Amino acid sequence: MSTMLTQSRRRSSDHFQPEDMEPQEQRRLRGLLEQIDYAAYVANRELIGHALAQVDVAAFQKLAVLTAQARARWGAEAIRLAESGAPATPDQVARLTAARTAYDELSEAFDALRRMVERGYLPLK
Fold first, then answer.
1. Residue 82, in any domain of the structure
2. pLDDT 10s digit of each residue in the chain, 125 long?
3. Which domain range does residue 91 map to?
4. Rounded to whole angstroms, what are the CA distances from 47 to 33, 51, 55, 113, 118?
5. Is the Cβ–Cβ distance between 13 and 2 less than 8 Å?
6. Counting beta carbons within 10 angstroms of the beta carbon of residue 121, is it exposed (0 to 12), middle (13 to 18) or buried (19 or more)?
């Protein structure tokens, strides 16, 4: 099982292939799995391509700027807390958490959209 680290979590690839199968049965299983993977590819390409048909490089640039702004807000909030010298209040921690959550979500969205382009689900104009 392989593991892929994304911005905020680990994702596991759980493709089980029994090793005690006959070679012919292994080939048959690989063929079926390829059909399943291709069905997912086609569904993703059609549905994502249709839903996000207006996405272009300019949209990615805007999302990149928005993500960078969120990261800067999160960092600035953390520095403000540290410079105060006082223990963080629940409200301050909640603001810091909200800033991190905003950055994490935008970062994950950017990465996911980039993967959609990389995999051919989302053609760019």
1. yes
2. 455 555 556 566 666 666 778 889 989 999 999 999 999 999 999 999 999 999 999 999 999 999 999 999 999 999 999 999 999 999 999 999 999 999 999 999 999 999 999 999 999 87
3. 52-118
4. 21, 6, 14, 13, 16
5. yes
6. buried
Number of domains into which the chain is organized: 1
43: in domain: no
User: 25 phi and psi, to 5 degrees?
Assistant: -70, -35
Distances from the Cα of 91 to the Cα of 63, 74, 96, 102, angstroms: 28, 15, 9, 16
Chain centre to alpha carbon of residue 15? 20
Which helix (DSSP H) or strand (DSSP E) does residue 13 occupy?
strand 10-13
CA distance 30 to 24: 10
From residue 125, alpha-carbon distances to 60, 86, 87, 95 in Å are 12, 51, 50, 38
pTM: 0.76
